[in-house]
Amino acid sequence: MGVIPNMSEQAVSLYNGFSMPLLGLGTWHHGDQTEMTEAIRFSVQEGFRHIDCAYVYGNEKEVGVVFGEIIGEGKEVDRSDIFIAGKLWCTEHAADRVEAACRSSLADLGLDYFDLYIVHWPSGFVPGHGNVPRDEDGKVMFSGVSIEETWGAMEKLVDLGLVRSLGLSNFNSKQVTKILDMARIRPAVLQVESNPRFNNEALRSFCAA
Question: Catalytic one among 15, 55, 57, 113?
C-alpha cells in the first residue's frame, strides 16, 4: 500500500471546483536526471498524485518519458487521477509567446493539458538569449512585459482547454493584487517558499483574507 491510500482525503478543493492533492513531488534536480525519473516512478507507485514540473528545470522530455510509461489506461495511474503542474518561464511572458511555450511543454511531457499552469516569476526576460539573459555588464535583461499582459495570455490557455487552473509563483502581495484587479480568471494557487525557518506568514494571511 502506498503512502497516500486515499487521494481524495489528502486534497484541497480549488475555487474553480478542481481538486489538488496536497502532497506533491517537485521535479527540479541538479544532478543525474535518472535519479529524478526514478523518483517520479517510485513516488507515483507509493501514492503521490501531484507532480510539479517546469520548463526551466531542463528535464521535461525526460519526465515525459516516465509519464508515458506510468500514466494512461492500463498503466500505474489514469491521467484523470494525477495532478500535473507546469510553469511558464520568464522569457515567454509576452502575449504572443505564452501559448507556444505552454504547448511546447505539454508536447515534451506527453500531455494534452496541465491541471495547473503557473507564471514562474513575476518579471519577464528578453527572449532569445538563454534562460537568464545578461548584457555586457552582466545585468539581467528584463523585457518590460507587464504582469497584466502575461496574465491575459494565460487566461486564453484555459479557454483553449490546454490548462484547467492558473497559478502564480514567487509573487508578493502587491503583484498578486495587480492580477486580481484585472483578472477574468483568478489564480487558483500561489506557490511560494514556506518552511519552519521562513513561514511567509504575512503573505499566507493576505491570501487567506
Answer: 57
